[in-house]
Amino acid sequence: MPAIDSPAQLQGQYRVSRNLWLVISAVVVVVTLLVGAIGYIFAGYAYTSSRISNAAGAVSAVNSHRSLVNTTFALLDEQVASLETMTDNKLAKSTSGKIVAESQTMSTTIAGDDDALVTARSRLHDQQWLTRISTGRLTAEAGRIDRAREAVATARSAARDYVQFGGFLQVYYQALIDWDTMVADANINDFVGTTGADSALQADAAAALGVSNAPGLPKEFHDYLIALQVYAADVARLLNAISTRDQAALDTANKLVLADVATLNAVDFTATTAKIRSYYQRYRDDFNAQMDKAAA
Q1: pTM for the model
Q2: How many CB atoms are located within 10 Å of the residue 293 CB?
Q3: Measured between alpha carbons, how far is 177 from 191 in angstroms, rounded to an integer?
Q4: 63: Cβ–Cβ under 8 A, 6 or more apart, which residues?
Q5: For residue 208, what is the enclosing H or E element?
Q6: SS3 call for 268
């Protein structure tokens, strides 16, 4: 007959069996945790990569418009420079309208870029429990988006300023067109035409003065418009003196008009173009510097 184990032997076998199961259970728990951790890491990495990819796409979209923005900056700069030697005020007004239109186009083009950047940045922080191990990568990408948004904001600010500047020039050159018309009518002794053109000159000079705070506009334009308003008012006095045949008033008005012309001629526009171009060049420089940081 087989030997019957003693109680001590049975207890020893039980302890060995229980220890074995404890080891197996511990291994199973460790393996389960390890598999879960690896799954968490891979899932977090994949999710983070998709968010970063979307963000990089939004930055790339802005960068794709970089050439258009720089081309527009260059064109606007050329148009501003061309006004310096332009003698046809109607052509100058037309060019001013192009400055407005091109600036608005640039602003519209990049407006959608900012919306995409805002959306991409907000999604970088989705599911933070899953992307916690990739915080550094997400923070770096958020920084790139912020630089791109700064670049977009700079371009939009430049466009907004150019729109106001171009709008001023349109009214300004309209006043000069009125002046040309007034002189032309006076040269052919068209009293009615001269009077009407002078009234238009007074109104448009006042309108231009009202928007002479346009960004980047040198003070010489403001000074010139003040003198032009005075001149137009004195011409009205002169025309009234002619109409009433008041010789004393005519002599006085004539002296005032001559003094006004001297004041107008004394306004020095020599450095104005350089001042305007310098003001807007800083926008172009800032835009490209910010885009360089975003693309890095």
Answers
A1: 0.78
A2: 15
A3: 18
A4: 148, 291, 294, 295
A5: helix 191-210
A6: coil
